[in-house]
Structures
1.
Amino acid sequence: MTGVIATSIVVMGNGSVSVGYTHDCAEQIVCYHNEKTNVYASFFTEPSISLNLPGYSNIESINSGVEKVLISEEKLENLKKLETIAHLKDNWNANGAKAFADSLITKVRNLVMFLDVQPEIFPTACESLQLEYDKSDGSHLEIEFSESENAEVFSVDDKGCESIRSICSSVDAINKVVNDFYG
Amino acid sequence: MDNTFEGAERLYRAVYPPSHPGMFWKKNGKISPSAFADPKGLSVERGFYRKPERIVEKMKETFTGCIVSLSVQDCRDVDAIVKYLPSRENEYHSEIHGSDTVALLNKSQRFHLAQVANEEYMEE
């Protein structure tokens, strides 16, 4: 996303995230505080921003239970795409696919916030969301999330060998699978 | 036109949703396997000896979104089943199923079909 100087994130009370971009801002840091959700958004000229979000632990505690989470451009793109997917209505594929449950969107959003390596995110007509990783050697990893507690992991290695398994859809479990994929 | 398909016959798939042309395309330029996941089977327009340009133009009259194509042989290579299922509105309507009994393509089938899918029309 070239030319973007500042980025904003607003997490609403219902868990939805609004991601916006501001061009041509002078160097400044603006903090935003929503009384209902205790979310802060910061603006920087750097290609990442920080989001202070209570209840999550990723890097370091900065004050009174508020944790600091780094937001990369890739993460922002994914949050924005999730918002687009969240707005798809019933029959979005013209073949009866249902709109996505808020709980599924929220689950995947929470994962995206804390994944070490950002995936590419895609909807499916099976009421599921799929995170995908690809390496230049042809290796492929996809993790499919539904409202079930588990996630389906399908991978193809550089020799074309395929495997499929079910894992817990926790951040730690997903990070482990992704880190294993990247060796 | 019947349920007989030659391996070289191409099958054209409109990729929804409209107005979000990049939704199923990856940064490496390939379509995501997720675009081939549909529990009702993958609706396609069979080519049946028509010129690709004519097929795409006809589909654009009815569908919005991007259009990709696969060959019948591509489907057979992954043990997917191509079924001729004409509708009242479209005599060329067909579907790709995972097997004789399951409409949904499995993950392996989706992955391989995504690898060989050819872009026919990209909505801007």
Note: Chain B touches chain A through 24 residues (CB under 8 Å).
2.
Amino acid sequence: MHRVVQWGTGNVGRHALRAILGRPALELVGLRVYNPEKIGVDAGAIAGCPETGVHATDDVEAILALDADCVNYSALGATEDASGGVIDDLERLLRAGVNVTSSAPESLVYPKAAPRPIVERLEQACAQGNSSLFVSGVNPGFTMDVWPITMTRLSREIERIRVTEVLDMVEYTSQSAMYFMGFGQSPDAPAPLDAMHSTPETSPFYASLVMTADAIGFELEDYRYERDVGLAEETFAVKAGTIERGTIAVVKMGVYGIARGRDVLINEWVWRISNQVRPEWGIGEHWSMEIEGDPSMKLSMEPRTRLDSGRVVSLTVATAIVNAIPSVCAAPPGLRSPLDLPLWGGGYLS
Amino acid sequence: MSSYRVIQWGTGNVGRHALRGILERPELELVGLHAYSHDKLGQDAGELLDREPVGVVATNDVDALLALEADCVVYNALGTTLVSLEQPVDDLVRILESGKNCISSAIDLFLFMQRGVAPKFLTDEVIDRIEDACTRGGTTLYGTGMTPGFALDLFPITLTRVSRDVEHVRITEVVNLRDYRSSMMEFMGFGLVPGSDAEMYKLFADPPNSPYAASLAMVAHALGAELDSITYEREVATIDDPLEVAAGIMEAGTVVATRFWFTGHRAGRPLVTIEYVWRLTDAVRPDWPVGHCKWQVEITGDPSIRAEMELSTETDAKRPTSITVAMHCLNAIPAVCAAPPGIVSHFDLPVFGGRALGREPR
């Protein structure tokens, strides 16, 4: 039985909380929230589960005093001040001797690919606290690393791996998310996505490419990013606002890991708020993978959830780290990755 | 990159692929080759594959093989060359106590050598003997393969890494055998009238001790459960008119498609189902899945997950299964050589991939 603190109760955190409460092998002992309205509320009420007797708090000292085995850290987006805040939190927890499973920062899904100063700070904290850190999610953390790496166990030769994510965001309500994705904007407008992905240092997906390259023995020589858009042919409305004719209704991005002078590891996203525009890029919500080589492999994966707003990404980011808790608690101290932890599955039996 | 000295054991369908893989890969060095068939003995490993000689000759002299310095034995001895569990267990004990790690595709149940799994075969005595051999030799045994060894166990288990709760896991293999020039058609019940007791189905008469027991137990284990019972069911479909396939003519009224499934139950409810759909034609039972060679996973729970995997190869007989069994063995060599001594399963090794060749694009 592992004593676990859930940190954060946003889109991802609520799914994580529900997963922890459902696991017989995990005991919820604390809940860290940011929103003052949630302080003192029973964790069960926040997760939509029966009462737990564990009340939400924003008192980090009280959380540290619980002497938990693991903090499951899913503080994200709006509740997190800046990326510096996440590292400060992780460092403090690890130094205090608590193992951490976390969905941020994404570069640490493969510590070898993360910025050195951050890795050194956190390694030191782990050494001091005799604790371990594991960062994961669904992408990065699963679809462009663990999934293809595992498939290549069957490979004799690998020429190229392409993983494509297709997501339907028509039901999204957040205007800031819409802006971030570029929906409803002119194709010439400056794009936050471009700013984030154009360099390996800032792209959340670079570490995932490095992990895959290392696991299959490819030496990455270069990295490249591309964005393509599909424009609305007519003006239409979605929950988050109006999409004018001629503005962006579909975004297709790709990050490319280059070895031997060619694209070998390709991670693509198609995000859309209209099925009428560029349907050939893929419709619905799924991941697909193609491994060219011997044997050639074609895979697809389609998860579905009815919980909360039905967003499977939030759910799978949460479960990818909750399912890791027992392995991370058993691991030697330090920054861990899937390549140095024994295999696990997940899910409790309902 | 570290280098591994490897003995290849067996040169059948799987063994040939493994042997070629060892010769192709810069990080693997072939140091010995065990063959069963008398016409292969004394032949050079390279020549067996119609390649340049490599200076390693096939032998059935086990003492001489085990006297070699090697990191690992890839044990691909197969059904037809082995009559019972006795011989492979004797082989593995000798290999392991001689100080060589071993990766085996030979016996499906070696995937998950846990007490209580297929108890008729994986007896305490068998497990104790192998564990002792690992201890004496300071060596590791890993059983692996494709079906089982990957598609029926590791593949669905990997998908459950993003599961919150799981009610049921179904894995379905779909194969169209129309182009197979196999002498095994009758063994599998094709071309026989319904109700005939085909040889293959006799292997399934005792479901808890069937070859699928290990995969079922592993999926359950990944979910933190143990199975209470395993059941087996079968359906067949016949054809109204004679059907010509690569293996011959299937007469009217005989079996041209079969669907059989094993279900692991827990607390009175089905938890894991492994299902096979093998067809000679897509014209019967269109409600059963169709496809050339694919595996479907359906996880019911939150999230519910549907996944599909389709493989193809241009190598040899263009059947992916043999090559994937061999490659899974070779790709596991670094992880197994790095593992602590003892019997290991999927759950004891980290996520790893293939150290593949990275051929230039065609």
Note: Residues 149 and 215 of chain A are 7 Å apart (CA to CA).
